Each structure stands twice: as C-alpha cells, then as structure tokens.
Amino acid sequence: QVHVQESGGGSVQAGGTLRLSCVAFGYTGSTYCMAWFRQSPGKERERVAAIESDGTITYADSVKGRFTLSKDNAKHTLTLQMNSLKPEDTAMYYCAAGRWCAERGMDYWGKGTLVTVLS
Fold it and tell me: What is the DSSP letter of 61?
C-alpha cells in the first residue's frame, strides 16, 4: 500500500522560513510525479510545486523565487524550502504522488501539515 507522509509545518512570522519534507513509500510506477499542494479555508487547492520523474520542476507563480523544491532519490524524500513567507502562504500543505503532475493525476495524498504565517 502506498503511503505518503509530510512533515515540517509550523508557525512563523512573516518573512520567516520553513522546510517541509515528504516521503512516499511503495510507489512503483515507471512514470510519476510528486508535488506539494496547499489549501486554506474558502480557497481552491493550489499546486505549489511539482517534480516529474525526469526531474523537471515547476512552481506556482505565487511562490516563484521564494520556494525551492528538491528531491533525494536515494532516500525517496521530497523537500520544499519556503523562504520569505507571507501571511497568504498560510494553509494546509499536502504532499502527493501520482501518474502526472495535474491535481487529478495525483493518486496518493498525505494527510497534510499546517503552515501558519503570522502577520
């Protein structure tokens, strides 16, 4: 059974940093994507950053220049470094893995880790 687990959320002041980590156990697809999504109350879920199986990385416009995605293939972990955090970054952050990087292509989801940015 595939299991996705994320960690690293917390509460920080605006302008601060956080680092989120994710691991996906048991995924065996030859072509896959791993991604971070976020959602806050009253807003649609947004894909924050994604990495394809070939290493291609994409970012949402809202986080470009502030967030950095990286992957450790040996440890099968995904890291999201979040710098210059803004109050609007406050959300539940989810790690997901699936067949392709669109939200509907995500087959497995973590339970989320909460990021709160204080204004």
Answer: T
